[in-house]
Amino acid sequence: METEVRVGSLSDFPDGTLTGVAAAGHRLIVARKGDEVHVARNRCPHLGFSLTRGPGGLRYDNGVVQCPWHNSRFDVCTGENLDWVTGFAGRHVPSWSRSVIGLGRTPRGLDTLSATVRDGDVFVTGV
Ligand code: FES
């Protein structure tokens, strides 16, 4: 049986926001959409950098997070990669230079985790 870890109270995650948290020694992102909560590792699959801290700042809108480093975008609910390495710090770069910034890494999705809300608390499994 997988261990369940409490990441906080539902009220810690305002509706429509994405929050970085630490739970059981792991860095996670928690996105809330109404009563739904989605959790993924706070680790961009491009170079492993934080999705909540970086030169472009936290960028999250309607279930989509943009990496603050090289602008890759991900659906936080499914983990799907929507855009891969399009610039730096929120600014776009010419398409010819994207492969240089990409460093040969192939597009990948977020590492999502199963999340549940119970008695006002948010729990994840599989950390
Ligand atoms: S580290 Fe996230 S896109 Fe490069």
Task: Give structural notes.
- With 127 residues, the chain is mostly beta strands.
- The chain has one domain (4-125): Rieske Iron-sulfur Protein.
- It has 1 helix and 12 strands; from the N terminus they run E-E-E-E-E-E-E-E-E-E-H-E-E.
- The protein has one helix spanning 95-102, and strands spanning 4-9, 18-23, 26-33, 36-41, 59-61, 64-66, 73-75, 81-83, 87-88, 91-92, 112-118, 121-125.
- The strands form 3 sheets. A 6-stranded antiparallel sheet has the order 1-12-11-4-3-2, with no helix packed on it. Strands 5-6-7-8 form a 4-stranded antiparallel sheet, with no helix packed on it. A two-stranded antiparallel ribbon has the order 9-10.
- The mean pLDDT is 94.
- Bound molecules: FE2/S2 (inorganic) cluster.
- FE2/S2 (inorganic) cluster (FES) binds next to loops.
